[in-house]
Amino acid sequence: MSHNHASSKQPSPSSGSQSPVSATMLEVAKGSVTQAQRHDTECIVIVLEGAWRFRLEGRLVTLRQDEMLRIPAHAEHWAEALADTIALKIVSGSGEGFQNAAHRRDDPDQYLWGV
């Protein structure tokens, strides 16, 4: 899997202040599976190509091209690529929890996952 990362600040609708938003392009190989995990920030996943199955809040959700999923903050989830997949991950807040949590995994492929 490879990452292309962009970060920007978007104005907050309620206060006029700015809060960070991070967007990352993900390329995931068919058969890749994450361990169950939680994050401190909300995440939106948009599948641009391929198919990706998530277990989120006790249900299975399969995303295909041009479909999206909102993963609330603190919601336990895991994911499995059903096909070679290209997706966009948009994270509210700094997104630091995603990067740090992913790098602590023992599985050498787990650093690739931000969802």
Helix content: under 10%
Briefly note the CATH topology name.
Answer: Jelly Rolls
Strand content is over 45%
According to CATH, the homologous superfamily is: Jelly Rolls
Largest sheet data:
5 strands, antiparallel
Tell me the overall shape.
Answer: globular
How many domains? 1
What's the quick description here?
The protein is mostly beta strands. The chain has one helix at residues 96-103; strands at 3-11, 18-28, 43-49, 51-56, 59-64, 67-71, 77-81, 85-92. The strands form two sheets. It has a five-stranded antiparallel β-sheet with strand order 1-2-8-3-6, with no helix packed on it. The protein has a three-stranded antiparallel β-sheet with strand order 5-4-7, with no helix packed on it.
Helix/strand layout:
Blueprint: E1 3-11, E2 18-28, E3 43-49, E4 51-56, E5 59-64, E6 67-71, E7 77-81, E8 85-92, H1 96-103
Can you walk me through this structure?
The N terminus is likely disordered. This protein has a single domain, classed as Jelly Rolls. It is mainly β and 115 residues long. It starts with a strand and ends in a 12-residue tail after the last helix. A five-stranded antiparallel beta sheet has the order 1-2-8-3-6, with no helix packed on it. A three-stranded antiparallel beta sheet has the order 5-4-7, with no helix packed on it. Helix content is 7%, strand content 50%.
Key structural traits:
3-stranded antiparallel β-sheet; 50% strand; Jelly Rolls; mainly beta; disordered N terminus; 5-stranded antiparallel β-sheet; 115 residues; 8 strands; 1 helix
